[in-house]
Amino acid sequence: MTAGVLAFAGGSVVSLAAAVTAQPSLTGVPVGAGALWLAAGYVVVVGRGR
Questions:
Q1: How many whole angstroms separate alpha carbon 23 and alpha carbon 17?
Q2: What is the DSSP-derived secondary structure letter of residue 23?
Q3: Own/partner pairs for 14-23, CB < 8 Å, 24+ apart?
Q4: 6: CB partners within 8 A, 6+ apart
Q5: In angstroms, how far is CA 27 from the centroid of its own chain?
Q6: Nearest-10 Cα torsion for 42, 44, 49, 50
Q7: The model scores a pTM over 0.85
Q8: Along the 50 residues of the chain, how does pLDDT read in single tens digits?
Q9: What is the spatial distance between Cα 24 and Cα 27, in angstroms, rounded to a whole number?
Q10: Which one-letter DSSP state was computed for residue 29?
């Protein structure tokens, strides 16, 4: 469940960055999404080992 919440949060960050980028003279870079998705992958890989 934790990995799913992290993945969903990453998608929300991408959505927010897309909305910001739609504004004139602004660019949103979803750096946090990558971090959240890496954390979700870590939870999946490590969580299965326990």
A1: 10
A2: S
A3: none
A4: 36, 37, 39, 40, 43
A5: 17
A6: 100
A7: no
A8: 889 999 999 999 999 999 999 999 999 999 999 999 999 999 999 987 56
A9: 8
A10: -
